[in-house]
Amino acid sequence: MDKVAVIGVGLMGGSLALCFKDKPGIRVAGYDINPLELEKSMKRGVIDVACASLEEAVDGADFIFLCVPVGLLEQYLDRLLQISLKPGCIISDVGSTKASIAHYAASRVLPGVYFIGGHPMAGSERSGVEAATSLLYENAFYVLTPDETTPEDIYDRLAALLKHTKAHIVRVEPQRHDRIVGAVSHLPHVIAVALVNQIARYNEEDGLYESLAAGGFRDITRIASGHPYMWRDILLNNRDELLRLLRDWNAGISKFTDLLETSDGEGVYREFESAGAFRSKLPERRKGMIIALYDVYVDVPDHPGIIGQIATLLGDQRINLSNIQIIESRADVPGVLRLSFRNETDMDAAIGLLKKSNYKVQL
Ligand SMILES: NC(=O)C1=CN([C@@H]2O[C@H](COP(=O)(O)OP(=O)(O)OC[C@H]3O[C@@H](n4cnc5c(N)ncnc54)[C@H](O)[C@@H]3O)[C@@H](O)[C@H]2O)C=CC1
Ligand SMILES: O=C(O)C(=O)Cc1ccc(O)cc1
């Protein structure tokens, strides 16, 4: 029987635990600083046993996953090294940055135990064990950062366990990880937050901003709702990369300012043209760092209770809706509902069901 200890049973830790829970030969122990979160984990059946201390959780563990904010990883590693762990135990983490923890672990002597950094590249703006799901990592990339001292069989043992997540395991060197993830995840989060705060300032003068920001603006800035504590730690941890990226970002924005100052329409055209060309090459519908919402538009007759009917139709088939929104509703014309799903499977099942019930569905 393999014992897996999950430290920090929130969105990521809870989702990992759910992937391992009830798999033959695996027992999942959880520890969290917040007893309420542990209680919820037990109630939801996310873990087999809730532990009152780190020591209890890791006692005899074959695998330990640190699923706490990035700023706590080093102190947790230190605490683990003071506990007598099971020989051969593999410690990993799910932190969004990899260079600093890899460097820290490499400078510590881990007698008979191994550290391999990890980053499942899927998540959401939500946090806490309530948002955890065993489907979170399916088809996503899961980065592991072994170093040259990591024995191959130890890496293979961790990779084999992580097969339960149904993610694609990839080996990446930690600095390269932080450079790329800084650009495709951390920078977009900073931009989304700055943009939302800019609009919030304008809205103080004129409340119409808020009304008109519904829909598209709200969607493209979803990531601005990430957990402040978690993002503070990520940005400070990847500070050097982000400073470089923000300098580049400023240069890109200055270029637009120049183009507009000189009314250079051709230049603006070229910017959109090259962005469109690169964007069209990006893999479509592949699960990436920033999750896509899978949206479906449904024409609906304008009568009371229609939202409830559709929600019930999907709910009865256990299809999870992540959002439902009326896009258009006027007394004289049929309305359009936008249904958002978290994954393609739910979206496809919903389309089939709605079509069978004679709804007109568009993507
Ligand atoms: N949220 C996301 O989309 C993703 C997050 N990550 C990484 O996963 C890690 C965890 O993030 P989430 O699960 O999203 O956050 P979360 O807030 O849902 O879960 C974190 C859990 O850690 C617990 N915790 C906090 N301090 C603790 C301590 N001192 N000792 C024990 N437990 C403690 C909290 O009570 C909470 O249950 C972070 O390092 C983050 O960078 C990685 C990929 C995606
Ligand atoms: O909300 C989203 O789509 C995200 O971008 C989630 C996320 C947050 C942190 C990560 O390290 C990876 C993924």
Automatic annotation (TrEMBL):
State the UniProt keywords alphabetically.
Amino-acid biosynthesis, Aromatic amino acid biosynthesis, NAD, Oxidoreductase, Tyrosine biosynthesis
Question: Which positions fall inside the Prephenate/arogenate dehydrogenase domain?
Answer: 2-290
Domain ACT: from-to ranges: 295-363
Q: What class of enzyme is it?
A: oxidoreductase
UniProt cross-references to InterPro entries, sorted A to Z = 6-PGluconate_DH-like_C_sf, ACT-like_dom_sf, ACT_dom, NAD(P)-bd_dom_sf, PDH_C, PDH_N, Preph/Arog_dehydrog, Prephen_DH
Q: Which GO terms describe its molecular function?
A: prephenate dehydrogenase (NAD+) activity
| Source taxon at top rank | Bacteria
What EC identifiers does the entry list? 1.3.1.12
Please give the catalytic activity noted in the UniProt record. prephenate + NAD(+) = 3-(4-hydroxyphenyl)pyruvate + CO2 + NADH
Q: What is its pathway?
A: Amino-acid biosynthesis; L-tyrosine biosynthesis; (4-hydroxyphenyl)pyruvate from prephenate (NAD(+) route): step 1/1
Q: Where are the transmembrane segments?
A: none
PANTHER family (UniProt xref): PREPHENATE DEHYDROGENASE (PTHR21363), PREPHENATE DEHYDROGENASE [NADP(+)] (PTHR21363:SF0)
**Protein family (similarity comment):** Belongs to the prephenate/arogenate dehydrogenase family.
Q: What is this protein called?
A: Prephenate dehydrogenase
